[in-house]
Amino acid sequence: MSSLAILMARKTPFDVIAENFTLLALALLSFSAIVFLIFLLGSRSSVKTQEWLKYLVFLVPALLLLLIGLIYPTFRTLIMSFMDKESETFVGFDNYIWAFTIPEINVVLVNTLIWTLTVPLISTLLGLAIAYMTDRMKRPAAIKSLIFMPMAISFVGAGVIWKFVYNYQPREGQPEIGLLSAIFKAIGLTPPNWLLEAPLNTYLLIVVMIWIQTGFAMVVLSAALKNVPDEIVEAAMLDGATAFKRFYLVSVPMIRATIVVVLTTIMIGTLKVFDIVRTMTGGNFQTNVIANEMYSQSFRQMNYGQGSALAIILFVAIIPIIVYNIRQLRLERTER
Amino acid sequence: MSTLRRRAIALGATAVAASLVLAGCASTEPAAEETAAVDEACAAYADYLGNEGTEVEIYTTIIDPEASLFIESFAEFEECTGITINWNGTQEFEAQISVRVEGGTAPDMAIFPQPGLLAKFAGNGLVPANDKTSASVDENYTADWKTYGTVDGVFYGTPLGANVKSFVWYSPKTFADNGWAIPSTWAELLALSDEIAAGGAVQPWCAGFGSGDATGWVGTDWMEDLMLRFQDAATYDAWVSGELPFNDPKVAEVLAEAGKILKNPAYVGDVASIATTTFQEGGAGIVDGTCAMHRQASFIGGILAADFGATIVSPEDTTTEGGITTFYFPGVSADNKPALGGGEFVGIFADRPEVHAVHHYLTTAAWNNKKASLGGWFSANLGLDTANVADPVNKVAVEILQNASTFRFDGSDVMPAEVGAGSFWKEMTAWVAENKSDKAVLDAIYATWPY
Amino acid sequence: MTSLVNKTSVKAKAKNIFSSPIAAFAAWVIAILWTIPTFGLLVTSIRPEKDINTSGWWTFFANPNISFENYTQVLFEGSTTNPPLFQFFFNSLAVTIPAVVFPITLAVFAAYALAWFNFKGRDFIFFSIFALQVVPIQLALIPLLQLFAKGVEIGGVTVIPDFDITGTYIPIWIAHTIFGLPLAIFLLHNFLAQIPRELIEAARVDGAGWFTLFSKIVLPLSVPAIASFAIFQFLWVWNDLLVGLTFGGGKKEVAPMTIRLAEMVGTRGSGWELLTAGAFVSMVVPLIVFFALQRYFVRGLLAGSVKG
After folding, report:
1. What are the phi and psi torsion angles at B171 (to 5°)?
2. Among partner residues C80, C167, C246, which is closest to B99 by beta-carbon distance?
3. Where exactly are the structural domains of chain B?
4. Residues C90 and A17: beta-carbon distance below 8 Å
5. Which long-range contacts (CB under 8 A, 24 or more apart) does C57-65 make?
């Protein structure tokens, strides 16, 4: 075989694309076919059969996947958190002691706390404010789309975008390519090394997350606001309340449930996100958060014991939020 | 569609031309002679026959543009043996290799940038090199290189490319214009730095530690180079193996010397921003003349040439604008010249004959010479003919590798991963970024050593 | 007594007073500031490489030097080791579409079951699924990977055989399905539970089985909710890096665009010109999806978590 033939035997992009699309079509077709068939059989079967078949078809697939994919790994992680780095010997609480006594851990925990408190709060407040401002506009679509746009950008993309904002040029006389630095210089101030200075850098990274999450908050809260019956708000107006008071005292309480959902969804997302920290500072310069450290321990250091311990700590931190949410949901149900 | 097909054909044609030239054939020769000539060239690959139609995946951090040179160097091998080599280069290698191995999808062959990382997989999926490969390494490399690929007496990792780190890059034109002399001792180096600083126009040193997930490795190179100079080789070995505690006074002494340059604003400008300057940008200053010296390994030359418009010249060339070259990073005295270097090691995870074939092929002088002649690369292979190495800096590097009295491998690459690819990097970063004290840095690294 | 005319004029007056120009202006200012960073990316992607490294993107307006070189290079040029970006574009499509269809299908089924089947432990299961949202993906990577690569054996008995699917899309699809289920089930359940009970009862009385009930009544009603969740899942999968990286077996043939993009960021200090163009290419599709399905979004989420 000549090397030309070898190179031609290597797939060109078009071969790959064609192959992939064939697989895609096959997958979608077979999936639809299976579902269709099951439904056909299901609707034809007797009432008695349906009583147990319905569970098998509707509930079991999802539960099975969740069991294998999420529940089993969670228990596995719990067990690994009590074992050594190769997961061979039992070490008791050593990993947890490690987690709470390494000097850096203070930074990591404090940072995680700062992220968890500021991101949901500010995103939700901003989202609410923008929802309020656009609620009465005739054509809010453009504004809403612009605010939501960051959600469509991957974290890697966001990292690139904000690099051009936060870039710092240490060499004198060299032009700035970071927007913030340029602005500072233009007004006569010396820009700091943005991503280097703690705790400024943590807040700057948080800005990126807020930039992404506010769109989500805005869209959900906007939809909820629209659902508030006009009559109630008008009644308040006729009572003489100002626009802002109407909003604050009437509309907001009516969408309380939605606000809680938005806050907690963003909070959970914030606790899990590590991409932003990882791509922009690598966790250096006092910006590290639990999710990043957990990834680092498990996958770069290959210390599964310590990585798992951090993961469990993360869980335990989120449990109160989940419990609160479940309580809220339960309340709602009884009211329904 | 036709553009890509044309490109593929063009690339194919280049590869064919290259291999035919190497095989000594002309493409217009009649079929019989061509077959004969090809047979002749393929005779060298007789040992690897019997594996036609098989594939070997190589998983590595090496991506373009270096990767295409590797692929070109395999063309003749693939043609003659029928083995297809699939190059899978990704910068996520270090994070993903453990996931792949643990998850059961290990690659056939992996190129490890650090022996310490390779050692982690010994007994965890790594297949030992076979006897033929082992013998080839014995023949073609100094004993040191083999030990780096050996874990607990079993030999796994064959050496691939190499680099030499004990270099200071500078621009001969800048030096000539300012009448500066090349220092040959550490004291002279510091004196030169003072002289340049006093001049005011040029910054004596520039440095950059930034490297994504690996930020800080440049600092570890400084430490290792200085360790070899201020302490002896035995101390260096003890330090790397952990016998010498990381916060020992001897180590502290070395860190203090590093600080004389790296933490001196008169020499490096803004100390903290060393941490946020990428290692590629770190050297840019010597190209445009804003700084005088940049301590870095041999591979930075190619990067500065490709991305910052530099030209690699020999030290006599004092006229080329943007011309850069190296002088030896001085030791304590003029005759004390230890060499620090690094390299990659190839480990295999599959025990198939074609994988062993490729593993062996990469250790032969034939392949090493073929690869070096494509440019911008060299290795520690004793059969490597320096005539094949065009780059003046790389030529010097090869000579150092083949003749060094004291040669040591990059320490952080050999240390346990928690330190060498973890705390050592992070603490050196914090050392400049947050002005952490020497003692705090060394204590922190010591605390993470997995005794 | 409010006549129709009165009511309309009150409403009109209300709208008039409410559409405060100040609020609208403030909203516009925020929206513009919000978009400046992204705009910077767009501008950078059409500048020549040299300009990008030597001056800020805002100087573009003083010296407009447009070049589409970045886009052509990133999209169409490649090498034997790194296929051009447009191949990855199709990979992303091939990964994302099933990774949206599969979880939504299973989630609608499960949400239906949890909303309308009556069985013991139903609430417990529902709240557990809700709680599973918390699990970070990293935990599941290795166990799932081992499962796909080797199957599962318990005590020497093969529970799940080795299907030899590594390096194909299938592990990625399954992984995305698993990770998308908790939130999907939660959101869809909230919606489905609000279908009027009378409707369901009436259909059951008419003799509809559970399957017919689903396909004829429940499914058509849940289209807005499904569409709105589909957008979220699409965005999430399209922009995902970790799952594609881990479950793709490291093979370039199945790697989505985010992986190629992350390569470009990597440890190289330069190459920003390609990166910006690449980032923009990867943003286009999610944006189109969002704009196209916007109205479902609002309606769908509306019913998702609001009282009354």
Report:
1. -105, 115
2. C246
3. 51-164+341-408, 167-337+412-448
4. yes
5. C57/A164, C57/A177, C57/A179, C58/A179, C58/A182
Q: How many CB atoms lie within 10 A of CB C15?
A: 12
Indicate the residue of B67, B100, B107 with minimum beta-carbon distance to C81.
Answer: B67
Report yes or no: C201 and C210 within 8 Å, Cβ to Cβ: no
Is C281 part of the contact surface with chain A (CB cutoff 8 Å)? no
CB contact under 8 A, B99 and C81: no
3-state secondary structure of C67: coil
Report which DSSP code applies to B366.
H
B339 strand-pairing partners: B407
Residues A103 and A201 in one domain: yes
Task: Give chain C's contact residues with B (Cβ, < 8 Å).
Answer: 76, 79-82, 84, 141-142, 145-146, 148-150, 166-167, 245-246, 249-252, 259, 262-263, 265-270
Which residues in chain C touch residue B281, judged by CB atoms under 8 angstroms apart? 269
Give me the residue from B87, B91, B105 closest to C263, CB to CB. B91
* Res C269: pLDDT: 47
Give dist(CA B276, CA B274) in Å, integer.
6
The two tokens of residue B423 are 């705390």
Which residues lie closer than 8 Å to B308 by C-beta, 6 or more apart? B280, B283, B284, B287, B288
Residue B362, CB half-sphere, CA atoms under 13 Å: how many?
25
Residue of A nearest to B13 (CA): A4
Among the ranges given (B230-239, C101-110, C270-279), the one the predictor scored with the smallest mean pLDDT? C270-279
Residue B438 CB contacts under 8 Å (≥ 6 apart), including other chains:
B252, B255, B256, B259, B431
Confirm or reject contact between C221 and chain A (CB < 8 A): no
Query: For position A87, what pLDDT does the model report?
Result: 75
Partners of B208 on chain A (C-beta within 8 Å) are none
Using omega within 30 degrees of 0 as the cis cutoff, is the peptide bond preceding A175 cis? no
Where in chain C are the domains?
2-73, 78-305
Summarize the confidence of residues B126-151 as an average pLDDT.
91
Report the first-to-last Cα separation within chain B, whole angstroms. Answer: 58
Total domains, chain A: 2
> A182 vs C238: CB contact, 8 Å cut-off?
no
| Cα-Cα end-to-end distance for chain A | 74
CB atoms within 10 A of CB C76: 15
Q: Specify whether the CB–CB gap between C290 and C228 falls below 8 A.
A: no
Q: How high is the pLDDT of residue A183?
A: 86
Assess whether A321 and A203 both reside in one domain: yes
Of A21, A156, A322, the CB nearest to C131: A322
- Convert the pLDDT of each residue in C78-132 to its tens digit: 655 567 778 888 888 889 999 999 999 999 999 999 988 888 888 889 989 988 8
Q: Name the domain boundary from A37, A67, A92.
A: A92
Among the candidates A92, A112, A138, a domain finishes at A92
State the count of interchain CB pairs (< 8 A) between B and C.
87
Q: Are residues A99 and A66 in the same domain?
A: no
**Residues in C touching A219 (Cβ below 8 Å):** 297-298, 301
Boundaries of domain holding A242? 95-335
Contact check, Cβ <8 Å, C79/B279 = no
Class of the domain covering C78-305: mainly alpha
ipTM above 0.85, yes or no: no
A9, A195, A301 member nearest B418 (Cβ) = A301
A185 SS3 class: helix
For residue B39, the model assigns a pLDDT of 67
Which residues in chain A touch residue C191, judged by CB atoms under 8 angstroms apart?
Answer: none
| CATH annotation of B167-337+412-448 | 3.40.190.10
Searching chain C, which residue's CA lies closest to the CA of residue A294?
Answer: C138
**Domain made up of B51-164+341-408: CATH architecture:** 3-Layer(aba) Sandwich (3.40)
Mark whether A123 and A193 lie in a shared domain: yes
